[in-house]
Structure formats: structure tokens, C-alpha cells
Amino acid sequence: MSQSDVFDIFVRYLCFVPLITMHEWAHAWVAWKCGDNTAYNEGRVTFNPIAHMEVIGTVVLPLAGSFVALTNPALAGFIIGWGRPVPVNIGNLRRPRVDDTLVTVAGPTMNFIIAFGLVAVTKLFVEFGLGKYAEDLVRTAQLSLFLCFFNLIPVPPLDGSQIMRNLVGMSYHTYAQLNQWGFMILIVVINIPAVQFGLRVVTNGTLNVMARIFGLA
After folding, report:
1. Is 24 a catalytic residue?
2. Pick the catalytic residue: 24, 42, 127, 135?
3. Which pLDDT tens digit goes with each residue over 14-55?
4. What is the percentage of the chain residues whose pLDDT exceeds 70?
5. What's the first-to-final CA gap in the chain, in angstroms?
6. Contact between residue 141 and residue 71 where contact means Cβ atoms under 8 Å apart
7. How many angstroms separate the CA atoms of 36 and 191, rounded?
8. Distance of CA 83 to CAs 51, 114, 127, 129, 179, Å?
9. Which residues have a Cβ under 8 Å from the Cβ of 66 and sit 6 or more positions away?
């Protein structure tokens, strides 16, 4: 592995951490606004990445994904990972089921907003003759969209599982039992070619739509 490869992994990871930080901040902020101070009291309504990091989801898997991306161009820009789950006391929410869903959706929504903003900034850079930075911005937008859609997979510990629980009215006991096996199930799911293909299609398709909106495609 060359020094250039190591530098690329380092840059890729540095782009990943703020995206996860904003994702988890959004969960905590919406929970706080919906009446639950649990995350706020634990210092999770912050942009400090350390408050939102966990070993497996924020360090091990993202770095491993960066190495894999170097050997598989089809996975370039795609890093699998998540932050430390934001604690939410359902009993403190004003409308428990609705607000819990809002808190859950907040993370992926933030990644979508970030991606849209990055594409908009890319347009400005191109207009002001700074196009040489456009590729890095687009790659970060692509990564943000991938994290958005990846986290919507309905398997614990991802946000999609919480959304599914609320939609089908699953009991907390049943969900807790499922959560025990969630990580193992997730490893199997993300290695299914159809899932990988679907994530690439929806990520790149959404990115292309955003690019067209700003006249970049």
C-alpha cells in the first residue's frame, strides 16, 4: 500500500466522522425538542465527535471499509458505519410513537440535507473557478447519501429498525430480543449482492438528481 493510499484512507475517514457526528446530533437535538432531555443531559447535543463515537461503528468498520474501497472501485465513496446510539426515554416524549419516529428519521434526514448542501457548494465552487475541489465535495456528498440510505435498512442497530418497530407496532421486548442478533444479521445483509446494488443505485441516483437540480449534470 502506497503513501497515497494511506492518505486517501485518512481523508475518507476525516470526511466520515463529521457526517456521523451531525447524524447523531440530529437524533439528540430532535429528542430534546420533543421533550426528552436524556441525550441533552448526557452531552449528546453537541458537535464534538468524541461524544458520538463508538469503537465498532465509528472506528473499526469505517476504516475497514476504506481499505476495501481501495481494492474495489465499485465501493469507492461508500463507508459503512454508525455512531453511538442516542439514548431516548420514550416516556418523556410528548407523542411517544410519533416523536420517536421523528427522532429516528432525523439522523438520515440530516445526512440527506448535508449532501444537498455539499452539491450546492460544489456549484458555487465551479462558478468561481474552484472546480478542482468539486470532486472531493461530490465524494463527500455521495458518502453522506450512502449513510442516509444505509441507516434506513430495517436491521438493528440501524435507524430503519426503529422506524419498522414503530410502523408495525412491535413491542419493546420483541425489539430488544431482535437487537441481540442485530449486528450478526446486519453483517449478513450487507454482504447480499442485491442489497449492495440497491444501495449503490439509490445513492448514485439521488446524487445525480441533486446534480441536475444545480446544473452539474
Report:
1. yes
2. 24
3. 889 999 999 999 999 999 999 999 999 999 999 999 999 998
4. 94
5. 34
6. no
7. 36
8. 9, 17, 35, 36, 16
9. 8, 9, 12, 13, 79
